[in-house]
DUF948 domain-containing protein
Amino acid sequence: MTGSDIAGLIAAGVFAVLVALLAIPIWKLGKVFDELRAAVKDVSDGTTPLLSEVTNTVATTNDQMLKVDGITTNVSDATANISALSSLTAATVGRPLIKVAAFSAGVRSVLATKPTGKGRRSR
């Protein structure tokens, strides 16, 4: 063997050791990618039913909101009708009662005054 053969063997040995040292991190990185793939698959498998449930919940909530909107409309109409009825009652009963109260107050004030015995004076 010549010196160049020995140098070639040493270089080949160093290259083999270098490949072996680089193979270990690459092997571990491959395991990390396997775990990552499994985690992504688990998340995907868990997310699909969850999205289906969320879709059903949103649809049910929309149906309930339509019902609440109808109830709110009916309550608004009932409130407007009660307000109109209250105004009508106040106008129908209130004004005559005010007139009767004013008349009775006038009669009481007339009856409460004591005659002084003097007649009216003309100016």
Q: What stands out?
A: The CA atoms of residues 65 and 71 lie 10 Å apart. The mean pLDDT is 88. DSSP finds one helix and no strands in the chain.
